[in-house]
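Schema walk-through. Below, the input block comes first and the output block second. Nothing else is stored per chain. Lengths vary across the set, and this one has 215 residues.
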Amino acid sequence: MNGEQSIGLRERKKRRTRDALVRAALELFTEQGYERTTVDEIAEAVEVSQRTFFRYFAGKEEAALALQALAEEHFVAAVRARPPHEPPMEALRRAILEGWDTISDAIEAVVPVKLHLRMWRVVESTPVLLAAHLRRAMETEELVTRVIAEREGLDADTDPRPRVAVAVFSGVIRATERQWGADGDFSVPAIRALTARYLDQVGPALAGDWRAPGA
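--- output ---
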């Protein structure tokens, strides 16, 4: 076995261990609650040591939000990939809605999508996790603001429009998250449909084309 193959095998083994830890963590969090679950229990479920757990995660919080981080990265990449002719709000809208069609595959490679969706309810009902999620959301919001400004040929520090648009968009998404599942349907189609319905209420004011001349 050559060096490259050896490195490839090690990386795959590390990925399998990390994914197994995420799955075990989410199963325990959704079954017995975040606060009542210990790192030792997560490690024992995967038959690894506590030390191994901390090689992959700084703590329970990071493991609990690992798939949220994946979804955020997926969304930012989707925004970057939108065609340059799309107005900003349309690009954001299509990125989030089409993202729901593709993120499921990425999540399914780690855990069943239903487990991920159940975990979201745990995040919503656990103050420490919700605070961490909102903090991460703010960081993602800033990154997306920069992406939108760049694609429009604008300076996010001097032109308020990218930041305002992303703030409005993020507010709609947050409202969607709070409302999702109110009727007991925690499925991907339900969150996608609700997201589309809420975004449709934003109106045309922010949907105009802001592209700077020559951009």
